Automatic annotation (TrEMBL):
Transcription is among the record's keywords: no
SUPFAM superfamilies named among the record's database cross-references: Dimeric alpha+beta barrel (SSF54909)
InterPro entries according to UniProt: ABM_dom, ABM_predict, Dimeric_a/b-barrel
GO molecular function, one term: monooxygenase activity
Membrane-spanning segments: 123-144, 150-172
PANTHER family the UniProt entry points to: SLR1162 PROTEIN
Name listed for the protein in its UniProt record: Antibiotic biosynthesis monooxygenase
Originating organism: Protaetiibacter mangrovi
Record keywords: Membrane, Monooxygenase, Oxidoreductase, Transmembrane, Transmembrane helix
Pfam families in alphabetical order: ABM
Keyword Transmembrane belongs to the record: yes
Chain ranges of the ABM domain: 4-73
Length: 187
């Protein structure tokens, strides 16, 4: 007994020609829907400006898929996209690997929280940067007082930047997280 086959095709599309490609994709779905063994199809775009379109279709078995791939309708349809789309990747999955099989579990992934307003980010950076900068300037002013200002500042920046990036800023950001993530009140 043959297993269903799901085919995933990633195609590159010029976003300015999205309306034409959408019509082309619908025509392909119409052609597919008339084929024996056809189980379903669809296409998605990550966002309206993305050049990548992901197209999926599924057939009941390898023979049905092979008949579609050898059909004059498919040859005409693929040929009509010359200069309109560019195939980037094809992938086939069968049986339990198919994307349309009933999932055994569902994982809901929430989107990342929105970034805090820039003024809050500025305050958090200031809380870290000012004391570190003050301490570094005092220390290097004492340690290497005869060096030219540009060289003392360079040594200070090279020393303080990793401390700020990997230790101080994450610590302060964690401490300020409730305030940083609190939505601003509407005026």
């Amino acid at each position: 007994m043959s297993e269903p086959i799901t085919v995933a095709v990633t195609r590159h599309v010029d976003p300015e020609r999205a309306a034409e490609v959408a019509a082309w994709a619908r025509a392909g779905q119409d052609l597919l829907s008339a084929r024996p063994g056809y189980l379903g199809s669809g296409w998605i775009r990550p966002d309206p400006d993305s050049p990548d379109w992901h197209m999926l279709f599924r057939f009941a078995d390898a023979d049905s898929l092979a008949a579609w791939e050898a059909s004059p309708e498919r040859a005409w349809w693929v040929g009509s996209a010359q200069g309109l789309v560019e195939d980037a990747r094809h992938e086939r999955r069968t049986g339990i690997e198919g994307w349309f099989d009933e999932p055994s579990s569902v994982e809901v992934v929430s989107s990342a929280p929105p970034a805090p307003p820039r003024w809050k980010q500025m305050v958090a950076i200031f809380i870290v940067f000012y004391p570190l900068s003050l301490a570094a300037n005092a220390f290097f002013g004492w340690l290497i007082p005869g060096w030219p200002l540009w060289l003392r500042v360079l040594v200070s920046v090279v020393t303080v930047t990793p401390i700020m990036t990997y230790a101080a800023l994450p610590l302060v950001t964690r401490a300020l997280r409730p305030w940083l993530s609190r939505p601003s009140r509407a005026r």
